[in-house]
Design brief:
The chain is mainly alpha-helical and about 450 residues long. It has helices at about 20-30, 40-45, 65-80, 110, 135-145, 160-165, 165-180, 185-195, 215-225, 230-245, 255-260, 270-275, 280-285, 300-310, 315-325, 340-350, 355-360, 360-365, 370-375, 385-400, 405-415, 420-430; strands spanning about 10-15, 55-60, 85-90, 285-290, 295-300.
Length: about 450
């Protein structure tokens, strides 16, 4: 991205991203090689006089884990202190607990150097200074009449009446805005639904009840689902719930159907196509190309995922069912597993307390995304987990770019050099192709190498 007066720049979306993802992106932007830590990168940039570079980070609150969010905040704060960097961060103000101040230690804003509402670094878009009520109303009005839609419909339904009666449209849009407050997502879901209903809603009608207009994401989602035909309602709920459990950038259609089925919903490709074809899909779904070019889907906003997951009574069992979907078949193996399984099986395993079992599978470790796996590892592992966790922490940086076979050999060699004989035998046995390490010069007690400062 090239920016006027400053550049080149980086636009980084933090949703489900790791600290390593951000570190790598900034290193690529600035041309820094071998930046394995915040310290490495900062030290390299301090010696530079070129730039300045612009780094814009969105959705920091939706990073992959709390530890990633903490490390990303540290990196961004140190980058902002350099004369060759300009940093802007968009985030929700997470707090340690409900009702606590956003400026207390432990909240997200202080980690970014913002300790009070008067901080010169803070631009609070929730404040009256930056909020324009008319903008929400105008947005709702455009959706009510399906403005700009290539194929508005259904024919003769609400949207056509709101187009011809702009006074009615604007009064209803004002009502939607008043109910939604400052939440554009709620306004969009409410207006879109009303535009497709056969009956016109008149807020001046004595029988009109304002409570029929949603005032929260939860209400908007309920009203959307309630407006579906009964035979479709449960299936759409199942598809959306499956996406609520999804990590990263999303899942392909086949895995989406498998996830929904694992959660107990009977769904088909026809149900997927029906959901994709609705206008509400613009506010429910986010579709992006994966690394191999195939589209993957996840929920449009984290608030939708939060609400759908709150409704699930047995989330531990749900995560176990989803992990079973990701585990490879006996005749397939981890090398044939999907990119999503390699990246996020650990997330699902940790959520259902089966990470320890997954870590005992050397073939999984040979292909796992270690930058996502390491933050999931327990700080104080039990005796069964401790040996493999110590090995993973010690060689993760070197192991990440290796092929599965070379990574397996490095794991086995490191176990041997640390005197972890049982683990070494387990890993060496898994090196079925070519050479397997038989022994290694001792390195002393198992340890983790700390890079940078």
């Amino acid at each position: 991205m090239q920016t006027g007066g400053v550049g080149p720049g980086l636009a980084f979306y933090s949703r489900e991203a790791t600290h390593f993802d951000l570190l790598t992106a900034v290193a690529d932007l600035t041309g820094v090689d071998h930046a394995n830590s915040t310290g490495d990168l900062i030290d390299a940039l301090k010696a530079r006089s070129d730039g300045p570079w612009l780094v814009v980070v969105d959705a920091l609150d939706e990073a992959s884990s709390s530890s990633d969010r903490r490390e990303m905040s540290k990196l961004l704060t140190e980058l902002a202190a350099l004369p060759t960097l300009r940093v802007a961060v968009a985030t929700r103000a997470l707090t340690p607990g409900a009702g606590e101040s956003r400026y207390l230690p432990g909240a997200l804003l202080p980690a970014l150097g913002v300790s009070s509402p008067d901080s010169p670094s803070l631009v609070d878009l929730d404040s009256d200074q930056f909020f324009e009520p008319a903008a929400v109303s105008d947005y709702a009005a455009a959706l009510l009449e399906q403005s700009g839609a290539d194929h508005p419909g259904p024919a003769g339904h609400g949207w056509s009446h709101y187009r011809s009666n702009t006074s009615l449209r604007d009064r209803l849009a004002s009502t939607i805005s008043a109910r939604a407050g400052r939440n554009y997502l709620v306004a969009a879901m409410a207006a879109d639904r009303l535009s497709t209903e056969p009956d016109v809603v008149n807020p001046d009608d004595p029988a009109f009840d304002p409570a029929t207009i949603p005032a929260s994401v939860s209400e908007a989602l309920d009203k959307y689902l309630d407006g579906l035909e009964e035979r479709h309602r449960n299936r759409v709920r199942g598809l959306l719930t499956a996406l609520a459990y999804t990590r990263g950038t999303g899942i392909d259609d086949q895995m989406w159907l498998s996830f929904a089925s694992a959660l107990g919903y009977s769904v088909s490709v026809e149900d997927l196509d029906g959901l994709y074809d609705t206008s509400a899909a613009d506010y429910l779904l986010q579709i992006t190309p994966s690394d191999d070019g195939a589209p993957v889907t996840r929920l449009f906003h984290q608030a939708l995922a939060d609400d759908l997951l709150r409704r699930r009574r047995h989330r531990l069992g749900d995560e176990r069912a989803l992990l079973d979907v990701l585990l490879p078949s006996p005749d397939g193996g981890w090398e044939q597993a999907s990119a999503y399984a390699r990246s996020h099986a650990g997330d699902h395993a940790a959520a259902c307390k089966r990470l320890a079992t997954l870590l005992q599978d050397p073939h999984y470790l040979a292909v796992a995304d270690l930058t996502r796996l390491l933050p999931l590892l327990p700080t104080l592992p039990d005796l069964r987990e401790a040996p493999i966790i110590s090995v993973l922490r010690q060689i993760a940086v070197e192991a990440t770019p290796l092929t599965p076979l070379l990574r397996m050999r490095l794991l086995a060699l490191t176990a041997a050099r640390n005197g972890l004989h049982e683990l070494h035998h387990h890993l060496a046995t898994a090196c079925r192709n070519g050479l397997a390490p038989r022994w290694g010069q001792p390195l002393g007690a198992p340890h983790q190498t700390l890079r940078g400062r």
